[in-house]
Design brief:
By secondary structure, the protein is of the alpha/beta class. It contains ten helices and 13 strands. It binds uridine-5'-diphosphate-4-deoxy-4-fluoro-alpha-D-galactose.
Length: 327
């Protein structure tokens, strides 16, 4: 009996694989390595291929007796999704549709899905509740919301149960330092700040300082990737006990401004990080902070690494030891 992890060679996927294996769970990874890294799965079984390859999914399900799936495989760059929406609908929505069809054919009826805070768009209020309005402001968020809807109807029609996990800002790295974040191109704040600390970039550009926030910079809710990993395990466990299509936010429930993140990074690294003030980035909401209480209450989720300093320390450990990522 195995858990199939699609996109298990990516950032959040690989940390989840490592976490599941630390609990002695049998895991099998499917990743096309278009973004992920072979090294990130460590020694977990890996199939290199597409979630749209039905024959491959049939054979994995048979060979490994797959009973549940954690589905990460997707494109996730907001800016790129605006420029190339069709690519995002094709890969994310059509890819998941094909995966769901294959899973149903194999009678696998438990799926945990990687959703995002981007489903909310510009929030009505913070902290954001799962029941708040979902009006994505970019195709990436819209593909994830469409998949949530697909899963909801798949439960109604076929009894396929699901948990959609809406991540806020995933950050940090494996505290043991074996795996970490390596995106190409990198667009996320914390790895870019740390690249500036390492001298791999000249400076960090702060995207706008005229937002209606305490210091004028955007506020986000940063959540340790290992805390995300544990939530995926609990979500799958929930599907052993209850049927339905569930949705949970995953965040710390606390917001930090871009300036605060840079300040904490300077403390952690003991390096003064050069900063440049730039224009606002299109589509960035001023404040995004989760209410994570539903996940705590219904999944029994307990965060182990909730301090921003800890998140940045673990990321720093990884980037310092792997300045060029997995290369
Ligand atoms: N930022 C900068 N400079 C940079 C990079 C980022 O100032 O060089 C700022 C951004 O404007 C934002 C904050 O740092 O205010 C965090 O930016 P990230 O790009 O790290 O993360 P986002 O909040 O844009 O994105 C996250 C997830 C997405 C998800 C989105 C929901 O990574 O997957 O939240 O809005 F879609």
């Amino acid at each position: 009996m195995s858990i199939l992890v699609t996109g298990g060679a990516g950032y959040i996927g690989s940390h989840t694989v490592k976490y599941l294996r630390s609990l002695n769970k049998d895991v099998v990874v499917l990743d096309d390595l278009s973004k992920g890294h072979r090294e990130a799965v460590l020694d977990a079984p890996l199939y290199v291929g597409s979630i749209q390859d039905g024959d491959l999914i049939d054979s994995i399900c048979n060979k490994h007796h797959v009973t549940g799936v954690i589905h990460f495989a997707a494109y996730s760059l907001v800016g790129e999704s605006v420029k190339e929406p069709i690519k995002y609908y094709e890969n994310n929505v059509c890819g998941t549709l094909s995966l769901v069809k294959s899973l149903l054919r194999n009678d696998v009826k438990k799926i945990v899905f990687s959703s995002t805070a981007a489903v909310y768009g510009e929030p009505e209020r913070v902290p954001i509740l799962e029941s708040d309005k979902t009006v994505p402001t970019n195709p990436y968020g819209d593909t994830k919301l469409s998949i949530e809807a697909m899963l909801k109807w798949a439960y109604e029609a076929y009894g396929m149960s699901s948990v959609s996990l809406r991540y806020f800002n995933a950050a940090g790295a494996d505290p043991e330092g074996l795996i970490g974040e390596d995106h190409s191109p990198e667009t996320h704040l914390i790895p870019l700040v740390l690249a500036a600390a390492l001298g791999k970039r000249e400076s960090i550009t702060i995207f706008g300082e005229d937002y209606p926030t305490k210091d004028g910079t955007c506020i986000r809710d940063y959540i340790h990737v290992m805390d995300l990993a544990s939530a995926h395990y609990l979500a799958l466990k929930k599907l052993d006990e209850s049927e339905g299509a569930f949705v949970y936010n995953l965040g710390n429930g606390e917001g930090f401004s871009v300036r605060e993140v840079i300040d904490v990074a300077e403390e952690v690294t003991s390096i003064t990080i050069p900063k440049v003030i730039g224009e606002r980035r299109k589509g960035d909401p001023a404040v995004l902070v989760a209410s994570q209480e539903k996940a705590e209450r219904e999944l029994g989720w307990e965060r182990q690494y909730s301090s921003l300093a800890q998140i940045i320390e673990d990321a720093w450990k990884w980037h310092k030891a792997h300045p060029d990522g997995y290369k």
